[in-house]
Each structure stands twice: as structure tokens, then as C-alpha cells.
């Protein structure tokens, strides 16, 4: 049996002088509340506050980082119990799924998933042996036993994790019934929504024309024409704001923006509804919608997040069998300097607007993103994202953007996760890595320690709340 042990100095510098500084900085931030302004947890958890059914349902099925890795090494989605949209038979026995996962746990060595999961096992479930085939049942029984207790209801967990704000992400077609239930329950937990209009602004999204028609039904606007369509989008933004939304989120294949005349928009929109857009026209339309959303943000104050560059559903067989968000999204090369120019020419100097840029293409950090955010008042940089949400990714991000964008054009950490239990683990990694980075500045006499401490607190807490207008 190997012990599961979280070293108190994990992720800190290895030389003693710098490590001592990192430890001191970390003491200042480790207990600050968690602000999670962007993510994909299921709002029904907090609305219904039911017990989580079993370990597999909680820790494996919602975590595409987990089944992506296992799938890549030959484990089938069906054996992991991932629900099939094509109606394929999938494993139903949660203990079998758990054993399969445990027998493959070694494949996560060296990955952030391993760090996050070990943190959850140790800190949340008080397990002290490593997960493997031999300990699989011990793990299952312990986790299952804990999940039956009141302390493990979603709201109680959110409170014990010290999560002050938690944003979920919904489509404009969502009626936000779970958020309504949360509000009506009188519970004070800070669960809010965010407006993600991809299904109704991307001509290539499954069912685009039907989605736009449904948007019309929901809002009472005529979404068959351009003006009615814009009014409907605006109407839903107001509705989302009434449930606490402070941000929008845009998951486009590229960062392209456009600035067309109204006549051009009308013509292109008609084509999109008819399903007649060429790939280039669809790209121009999505780009126009980013610019339209920026204009609406100036009016209603919602912060824009742009998450471009993911080639979604790269594996058609997995997509037809199991649907979206199953670990088959692959980063692609992404350009920003030319792509954002139409939007920036129009709105780049309007300080009522705030746009947070993300990337899956790390080659643009120092060449494009830091100079853009280091100039335009409307632009800020989101943290290292998704494939780069790792200690190495965080280090590369800070090393490449700080010289030009500084710390104050960044917005702290986003966990961006569906895996609720991993939230404290992920924020802990981010806090440790920021302290690690700052400790080097102090050790090199580039920043006094009291200033580094202020920066660490700002990156952990203040900048996040400011950037996402949470108060
Ligand atoms: Zn996201």
C-alpha cells in the first residue's frame, strides 16, 4: 500500500530562500474565500440540494478530463457509464465503473487531474492510501458513506468549501428554473448564471434555425428578422441579469470579429436562418455577433468573456455516440491582432466595456495577448485555460504576459469546471503557483515582499470580484 500524502510545500520553489517567501505569501491567501466566476457546474445541484447518488456519478461522469485520458488509452465511454445519446448500452453499476477507474489511476501520474483528485480524496474524504485496484472498494465505500451525510449536500459543501461566488453557464434558451428555485428558496449561497449565446449566434451550432425560432417564442420577438433577433437577445440578457448574471461567454472557433452594415447583417442573417451560409460566411456572422454583444454589453454592463480556438467535437464517432463535451475538443491555432480589430475599432476605447480574453494557443501570450491587453482599456486576460490549467500552464502564462500586461490586466483564476468537488483543489493550485511566481520576484529583489503579498491577495480575490463585477 502506498500512502496518499499532500506535501505542504507542493508546487513551491525548491531552493530554500525562495520557498520560504512562497510559504509566507501562501499563508496570506490560502484561507481567502473562493470566487469562481466562470464554470459549468449543474445549477440543479444547488436548486434541489439532493444527496449526490454515488462516487462514479459525482467524480467520474461529469469530468471530461478523466474520461478523455481513459478513452485515449483504450477504455470505452460505455464502460465508464457515460450516457449515450445514441442509446448505446452503457455500464450502470457505479461500483464497476469506480473499479475500472481505480485500476487505471496510474495513467494520471504527472497530470493536474491527479493533483486535483488526490486533494479531493485526502482533504474531503480523509483517505490516506493511494487509489489503485487494491484500494478501489475502500475508496468507494468511504466516499459513498460520506455522500449520504448532510454535510455532503451541495449547499453544505459549497459553504464548507468557502465558495463566495459560483457562476454556472446557460444558453439563452434556458428558462433558468434552477436559478429561480435557488432564489426562491431563500438560501444565501452566491450561485449565479452566465449568458452563453452560442446556440443562437453560431450558424454551425446544431439546430441553429430552430434555436432562433425558440428564442422568438420565449421572448415574444419576431426573430425571423434581424432587428427582432437582436431585441430577443437583448431581452434574454436582461432576464439573465435578473438572476444575477454579470457576464456573457462566447465559445467561438476563432476570435474573429466583424463590423458589417445593417443591410449586410440582414442579408447574412437570412442566409444563416435558411442554412445557406458558407463556412466563411458563418465565420463572418459569428464575428458580427461578437461585435453586437460588445455593443449590448456597453448598454447593460455584462462583462464579455471570449473563449476561442477550441475545435469542438473533433471525433465524429464520439460525438454521434455520446454528444458534446466528452473530451473530444482539441485546441487550434488562434490569431487575435487582426481578428479583434473590427470590434476594437468600434468599441476598444469605451471604458464601459470589459472583455476578458482566453486562449488555447500559448504562442500568442507575449506576442499578441499581453500587448493587446497592455494597451486597450476594454481588454483583460483570463487565466491559463483548460489544457493549460496546470502548474506549468500557469507558470508559462505569468512568465509571458506579466512584462507587458502586468498583474492588473489579468483577472485572477477561473476553475471553469464541471467537477464540483475539484473546485477547492484547483484554486489551491492557482494560489500556490501565483505565490511561487511572486516569490521569485521577491528573491530577485524586483518586488518588496509586502507588495508581493498585496498582489497575491489581489490575484486570489480582489481582481476576480472587480473584473466580474461581483459584489
Ligand atoms: Zn467554460
Q: Overview of this structure, please?
A:
It is globular, with a radius of gyration of 23 Å. It is built from 20 helices and nine strands. The longest helix is centred in the middle third of the chain and has 22 residues, at 279-300. The strands form three sheets. Strands 4-5-8-9 form a four-stranded parallel beta sheet, with helices on one face. The protein is mainly alpha-helical and 471 residues long. Helix 17 links the parallel strand 8 and strand 9 (379-381). Residues 38, 40, 307, 416 line the site of zinc ion.
Which secondary structure elements does this structure contain, and how are they paired or packed?
Blueprint: H1 16-29, E1 34-36, H2 43-48, H3 55-59, H4 64-72, H5 94-103, H6 112-124, H7 136-147, H8 154-160, E2 163-167, H9 177-185, E3 191-192, H10 198-201, H11 208-219, H12 226-242, E4 247-250, H13 262-274, H14 279-300, E5 303-306, E6 310-311, H15 316-322, E7 330-331, H16 341-347, E8 355-357, H17 365-373, E9 379-381, H18 391-405, H19 423-443, H20 449-467
Parallel strand pairs: 1-2, 2-3, 4-5, 5-8, 8-9
Antiparallel strand pairs: 6-7
Helix pairs in contact: 1-19, 1-20, 6-19, 11-12, 13-14, 14-16, 17-18, 18-19, 19-20
The protein binds zinc ion (ZN).
Zinc ion (ZN) binds at residues 38, 40, 307, 416.
Organism: Gilvimarinus gilvus
EC number: 5.3.1.12
Catalytic activity: aldehydo-D-galacturonate = keto-D-tagaturonate; D-glucuronate = D-fructuronate
